[in-house]
Amino acid sequence: MIGMHQLKTMYGTSLINDPAQIADPETYLWFKTKDGTVFGIKRARLSESEQKLLHFCFASFSPDALNQTKKQRFWADLLFNNLHPEKCPLTRAYLLYIQLAQFSDRHRNLESAFHSYFDRIYLTTLWKNSKQGIILLKSAPEEPLDELINLISSDFYCNLHLLCMPVDDLSTVHTTYKKNFALFNKSCLLFPERHVVASAHLLAVLAAEALHEQKNSTITQQVKRLRDVPPELLHSVTSYFQHNFNLSKAADELFLHRNTLTYRLDRVYQLTGLDPKHFEDAVILSLLIDLYRYDQWKRSENPD
Amino acid sequence: MATIVLDHIKKRYANSDALTVKDFNLSIKDKEFIVLVGPSGCGKSTTLRMIAGLEEISEGGLYINDKKVNDTAPKNRDIAMVFQNYALYPHMTVYGNMAFGLKIRKLKKSDIDKRVREAAQVLGLEEYLNRKPKALSGGQRQRVALGRAMVRNPQVFLMDEPLSNLDAKLRVQMRAEIAKLQRRLQVTTIYVTHDQTEAMTMADRIVIMKDGEIQQIGTPEDVYKNPTNMFVGGFIGAPPMNFLPAAISEQGALISDHLVPLSQDTLSKLSDYKGKSVIAGIRPEDIVSVKEAVEDAFPATVDVAELLGSESLIYTRIGETSIIIKTTAEHVRSGEQISLALKPDKLRFFDAETEKRIL
After folding, report:
1. Are residues B194 and B302 in the same domain?
2. Which chain A residues have a beta carbon less than 8 Å from that of B38?
3. Is residue B284 part of a domain?
4. In sequence order, what are the residues at sequence separation of 6 or more whose Cβ sits closer than 8 angstroms to the Cβ of residue A238?
């Protein structure tokens, strides 16, 4: 592991320990060592490979944390430190969990984009580190979140995942936040194509983890049965669900005749006993497919 | 401007052993308009996102202007993206939306203003600059999304199903506008769609994908006339190519007990398949239909006939196989008896097992 002494030898005066020393901390990349030492290195001195290596060795640090507004400090205390201030400005809020696939060093610009997108319902943004954060909203977002994802992708070249959850009880918000973030992270890893993570997706992760140890439960057996369903059938069902049971749209995108898709859905019914065209069966089937993906993931991690 | 090379590109997600994109090879010329087309799940959007840097490349090399950019940060690749949904800031004006990407790059105010006004003029948005997205039509919003990409003067445009949200009429109009704009700006463009008509009408070259693999790369005319396999033949063209079971004999192709005579040259090329079953493919416009009975022609009954104006589509059968015919001949009605002839030089033959084209 690289030590602070070695870094100082390598980067000399381009390495500093106190963001307050400089006027524009954004011209530096900031990290935190395990013992809590904060240091920043001038961006201009770092190649892309060096940046990647540093991110690999050290936790990233956001100097914004040192310049938080009163509002941000309030929420950071509540969410990150489980500190409950005496006066609470709100009784209800919405947390939008953010997970960026790439390291972003332009948090202020991102905040400005979030503010522009949500406008009057935007409260603030808190950064846990350079890749994860929380957007706080006064009420549920009115605009579609997938548009925000595409905006950020096109303006900042960042791939991101979002999860929106309401907060009803501020006294337990720290615990809920921690649990949700852990599930959200797993969901991003398991289902990388789902950029807007819904609470139903978290439910799937939660259920998958709970069921994983129960090798012979009824649901585990049902998940195992999906191993016998050809992948193209599962793909067809998933696409049908994604198109909200619209057979024509799903068939069009899959480049199948409507009748072929109907046949495939019927085959799934024959193989699983669950009819994708029937709402209640579809709910179970959708959950089982997620559990099956979790099962596949675990099996690829531990083939034995 | 830019050339792009995708050299043995593969994509594997962390949650899966399977490859989402398998050994993708493509060389894109400067100023070229390339369309990636294929059904849902074929890997076209993943490929586009790897070029953008939004997804990591698992294996292979991506080169822009001969420089390997696998490890180049996405923001340094000089590309601009346009998405299916309009991706606009709802509370900003059109001007604000177009200027935002330049503001965060800290460009001078005067430069931003110049670029936004120039793009607005090209896109016919000058009078809407002070409007917010909600006060615009779908087509105008998509133009603003294009404007947001244009103002950056990128060396590559990446477009991911940009017209999917528009209604059919507007889609036709916008696809012509995008193609015209690309020719005017002369920026290398990679466009993703699942709509083969969009691909055929817009592309310099089409890349047809299925299950993470390239099926064929070619000009629209080439992939239409000479599909490399049955998938391409069926995917490209509306209505699609007709496929009929056939057997190769000494004189020609036996299709539904009828001999379609083939030239000696064709027969010699098919010599390995003599006496074997193959699949004959023929485009709907390459089947001639007449109302009267003709000797040696295929007799058929019209199942359905659709008059489209100058031409008709006839749904009928040769033997047990359903086929579609596109014709400018006199309109026929359901239930009428017709005679069909296949143009021998337009017949394509496919291996019945591999589905690859033999000839």
Report:
1. no
2. 255
3. yes
4. A289
Q: Considering the domain boundaries, does residue B356 fall inside one?
A: no
CATH class as words, domain A68-197: alpha beta
Tell me the H-state helices in chain B. 44-52, 94-103, 109-123, 138-150, 168-185, 196-202, 220-225, 230-235, 264-269
Q: Do B279 and B226 reside in the same domain of the chain?
A: no
Distance of alpha carbon B209 from alpha carbon B21, whole angstroms: 10
CATH for B293: 2.40.50.140
The whole-number average pLDDT for the span A80-94 is 74
CB distance A267 to A302 below 8 Å: no
Angle at CA B261, nearest 5°, toward B256 and B265?
130
Confirm if A118 and A143 have CB atoms less than 8 A apart. yes
Read off the amino acid at residue B294: V
Least CB-CB distance to B104: which of A117, A155, A254?
Answer: A155
- Whether the CB-CB separation of B217 and B205 falls below 8 Å is answered with yes
Contacts of A189 in chain B (CB under 8 A): 14-15
CB contacts of B67 in chain A (<8 Å) are none
What pLDDT digit, counting tens, does each position of B119-176 carry?
999 999 999 999 999 999 999 999 999 999 999 999 999 999 999 888 888 889 999 9
Q: Which tens digit of pLDDT belongs to each residue from B318-330?
A: 988 999 999 988 8
- From B235, B257, B289, the end of a domain falls on B235
Q: Assign residue A175 a region (left: φ > 0; alpha: ψ between -120 and 50; beta: otherwise).
A: alpha
Whether A153 sits inside 8 A of B54 (CB atoms) is yes
Q: Which domain holds residue B267?
A: 242-351
Length of chain B: 359
Domain A208-301 has CATH 1.10.10.2840: yes
Q: What residues contact residue B29 under an 8 Å CB cut-off, 6+ apart?
A: B3, B188
Closest CB from B40, B49, B92 relative to A116: B92
| B290 Cα to chain A: minimum distance (Å) | 29
- Quick: pLDDT tens for A108-130: 889 999 999 999 999 999 988 77
> What are the tokens at B120?
């607005």
Q: Hey, is A186 helix, strand or coil?
A: helix
Q: Tell me the helices (H) and strands (E) count for chain B, helix number first.
A: 9, 21
Does residue B93 sit in the same domain as residue B200?
yes
> Distance, in angstroms, between B334 CA and closest chain A CA?
22
B249 to chain A, closest Cα gap in Å = 33
